Amino acid sequence: MYPTPKLLRHPGRFFSALFLFAFTTSTISAQCYEFAGSGATLKIDITSFVSRQDDQSISSGGHSSNDTFESNNSLTIGGTTKTTISTSNTPDCVGCLLGSAVFRYSSGLTVFTMTVPADETPGSMNTWFATLGGAGDLIPTGVLPSPEAFPPFSSWPVNSQITVAVGGKLTEYQITSLGPCSNSSSGGSAPSVSGVVSASAFGAFAAAAPGSWVEIYGSNLAADTQGWTGSDFTGDNAPTMLDGVSVSIGGQAAFVDYVSPTQVNAQLPSNIATGGPLQLTVSNANGASAPATLTVNQTEPGLLAPSSFKVGGNQYVVAQHSDGSYVLPVGVISGVTSSPAKPGETIVIYGVGFGSVIPNIPAGEIATKSNELSASFEILFGQTPAKLPYFGLAPNFVGLYQFNVTVPAVAASDLVPLTFNLGGIPGTQKLYTAVQ
User: Fold this and answer.
1) Which of 230, 233, 52, 210 minimizes the C-alpha distance to 143?
2) Distances from the Cα of 95 to the Cα of 187, 298, 371, angstroms
3) Which of 194, 284, 375, 380 is the 20 to 30 A CA-CA neighbour of 416?
4) What confidence tens digit (pLDDT) does each residue in 397-424 have?
5) Contact assessment for residue 36 and residue 177, using Cβ atoms and an 8 Å cutoff
6) Closest Cα partner for 12 from 102, 95, 110?
């Protein structure tokens, strides 16, 4: 039995955890804080807390709190909005930054800071943060208040500012108000789509394929943040609407896995037209977006290879040993248990966009039976083809392909080129693996 991948709900920006599927994904209620000021507005929409260190006593007799979280973030300056995500440091997003909410009450003063990444470059120290200061014990419970219960802005007259720390330069904007986010989607504005890309951890192609996954970006896409759960399924069939949000492409309903105000993830239906552009729209209670265009090909295959697996300029494919550890040079990525593969060992690699399978399993359906790609398929280590004991949709997942790959006898190297051919056509990713 080989492990299933542990992907994030936003690596690159995908899937921000596309494949933490129905049975392991929990519904998330948005907890969105908005700091607005002269020239800048920072919104931090917490989707889940990673750690809570609340009401810690300090030597001065006061107390402190330090929480870390995953979140969707946006900073608007001069009418231009940039979005980022705060996400866990996991094998699929090594070096990505969590958000943090820290406050300290000491000597009659409370200081509060909420910090999120300003970009998603692994290891980047660029940040956005809001700082507030006020007299008295303003958070006496020692627990981060909800946006609605947060002490009013009038309580924070000391150094209340948004700071943009990018490239070693600090730019400050005075805060003039704070509170819950003013989600424009709940205020009547129709959704707006600014871009569509195939799953970014699997190649981030400009085109997609029937049954493959796309990330849709924009504004007013949803009122809050939510991923599908088992209760959203009808038997083995995935939902076409989540939290009132639906996606249509070529006039057909897609399957919606995740929604937030700025991103929606969806699986394309199986029977849409291929060979050219199709119109895609997002709809919610406030209406439908203007159509965006997405090119749909019969296949658009990509193997799981997020930017966090790029080492020294070389992009490694995500492959796993049977014990769940990763196929990489030993210790090459901090916090990731890894070792090279051995000739004769069978490892597991994952992908999306590889087309139909036999027997047929349509998009939007959990794969509950053994199957095989309809098209011919091979994986090569250098110029040497590997044996493939299994190459089809991954059991118990939706739209995820699993390839059990027996490593051929090749020269030992930490940079073995790994390529594939689908239906005789080479894949476009330039990938590596490690064999010893």
Assistant:
1) 52
2) 36, 35, 36
3) 375
4) 999 999 999 999 999 999 999 999 999 9
5) yes
6) 95
Query: Which residue from 73, 103, 104 is spatially nearest to 86, judged by alpha carbons?
Result: 73
| CB neighbours of residue 55 within 10 Å | 13
| Contact partners, residue 383, CB within 8 Å, separation at least 6 | none
- Spatial contact of 426 and 419, defined as CB atoms under 8 Å apart: yes
In angstroms, the CA 351 to CA 304 distance is 5
| DSSP secondary structure code for residue 228 in this structure | -
Chain-centre distance of CA 52, in angstroms?
A: 22
- What does the alpha-carbon distance between residue 65 and residue 56 come to, in Å, rounded to a whole number? 6
For the record, the structure tokens of 352 come out as 């999306």
Phi, psi of 309 (to 5 degrees): -100, 20
pLDDT band at 185 (very low <50, low <70, confident <90, very high): very low
Separation between Cα atoms, residue 327 and residue 346, nearest integer Å: 11
**In Å, how far are 41, 60, 143, 148, 364 from 102, measured between CA atoms?**
20, 17, 10, 18, 41
Token digits of residue 430: 């330039």
Residue-wise pLDDT for 192-214, tens only, equals 998 899 998 999 999 999 999 99
The HSE-up count of residue 2 (CA atoms within 13 Å, CB side) is 21
Q: For residues 10 and 319, what is the distance between their CA atoms, to the nearest angstrom? A: 19
The sign one gets for the Cα dihedral 258, 216, 125, 307 is: positive
What is the CATH code of the structural domain delimited by 310-435?
2.60.40.10
Distance, in Å, from the CA atom of 379 to the CA atom of 398, rounded to the nearest integer, reads: 22
Phi, psi of 50 (to 5 degrees): -90, -40
Q: Is residue 253 exposed (0-12), middle (13-18) or buried (19+ Cβ within 10 Å)?
A: middle
Query: 119: which 2 tokens?
Result: 């970009």
The helix or strand, by DSSP H or E, that contains position 298, with its residue range, turns out to be none
From the CB of residue 217, how many other CB atoms can be counted at a distance below 10 Å? 17
**Domains of the chain, residue spans:** 31-180, 310-435
| Burial call 327-364: b when 16+ CB within 10 Å, e when fewer | bbbeebbeebebbbbeeeebbbbbbbbbbbbeeebebb
Distance (Å, rounded) from C-alpha 190 to C-alpha 180? 20
Answer for the pair 301, 349: CB distance below 8 angstroms, yes or no.
no
230 three-state secondary structure: helix
